Amino acid sequence: MHEAARNLVLGGGLLGCGIALELAAAGRPVLLIEQDASLMNRASLRNEGKIHLGLIFAADRTGQTGRFQLQGAISFQRIVSSWIGAAAFSRLGVSTPFTYLVASDSLLSPDVLQQHYDDLERALDGIRDAEGGDIDYLGGRLPFLARRTSLAAAEPFVATSPITAAFETTERAISPEQLADEIRQAVGRHPLIDVRCDARVVGLEPHDRGLAVDVEMTPTRDRHRFTATAVFNATWEQRRLLDGLLGIQPEPGWLHRMKYRVIASVPPGLQGGPSATMVLGRYGDVVIRPDDTAYLSWYPAGLRGWSQDVAPPAAWTPACMGTQSAATTRPIAAAIIRGIAAWYPAFAGSEVLAVDAGAIVACGATDVDVVDSGLHARAATCFRRNGVYWSVDAGKLTTAPLVARQVVGEFLRGEAC
After folding, report:
1. Most buried in the list 250, 320, 326, 340, measured by CB within 10 Å?
2. Residue 48 in 3-state DSSP?
3. If DSSP codes are grouped into helix, strand and coil, which group holds residue 118?
4. Which of 224, 245, 253, 250 has its CA nearest to residue 389?
5. Topology of 2-43+180-250+380-416 in CATH?
6. Strand pairing of 284-288 and 275-279?
7. Mind listing the pLDDT tens digit for each residue in 88-135?
8. Is the dihedral of CA 12, 16, 21, 24 positive or negative?
9. Contact predicate 230/6, CB 8 Å
10. Which of 110, 104, 28, 407 is nearest to 233 (CA)?
11. Would you say 326 and 16 are in contact if contact means Cβ atoms under 8 Å apart?
12. What are the φ and ψ backbone dihedral angles of 167, each rounded to 5 degrees?
């Protein structure tokens, strides 16, 4: 079958859905192609939901990643609310604020971390001055980003023996599950967006009317060819593979990692307790969510895939779709909980509600326990253009809405010329 589609978006994660919604808001019809049976089903769903204020990226000594994440964070609510509505955004369920716990073998000392946080605070002051007032962050103010607090303040919850310092922050997370549900609804009800799920891109080639995209429907193996005058590659782990079909070489050093997460019940008495991130190295996070569930990640136990191929192995697919068997995930969950319980003891007996994984895409040959690893930087060029083809990289969930708006803005400006 051969169909015409003026604007074609590949990938139905937050970035792809955002690009589709931005195009549709500008009156442009969109065809959105997604490989899974539903939108927002992989990396955009299976993560901690943290809307980064730039704090975790202290090892990027240029400061570019931190400032980029800060810009994404303070624009996140405004942009996403324009897609799903302010009332829907208020239903996303915001976590308790994060306490940053500095490990005894952290890559960076508390003083160096403080310097990074101070630099970000100055950047925030500059944004406040430019915008003429307070900054909205997930429906609340940002009176500060991070300030050092005593270990005694963390002791009711945290075993402080592996910790040398603590920072109170205003950073929070939203529920990826609720975000996914609201985004799916927004895309589904927009009259200018046509969605094709269970559709795998198998070919890209120039066409006299723009670009031809060959798609195989997963259930039936039927082939469809779509021709478009603009194609946006917003896939995540498949982006470089699809770029290669047009002869676009990937940037050197790209790395795919597969990291598991656990969704667990919040132990009795811990409702409203602090979310926590241990810094800086191969550690993890605890996110306390308002529905009495928690996200748990412990990197040494949860990292189960490492690939420098142009796309990750097909063997990762069940974990990244949340379809692995309990027999496979049970020991992984147990290891993650043991790692967390060593410093957040209340989670030792948590009930496991879900276990799945997400693919992390970044540039670097060494792991996060190396201070100059490229994995500490997420401020690369967000998109590359090749004629009518746009290859777009969101970097993180935090910056996906900002990047979606930027790339569509650039596209519309070019269209007007």
Report:
1. 340
2. coil
3. helix
4. 245
5. FAD/NAD(P)-binding domain (3.50.50)
6. antiparallel
7. 999 999 999 999 999 999 999 999 999 999 999 999 999 999 988 888
8. negative
9. yes
10. 407
11. no
12. -125, 125
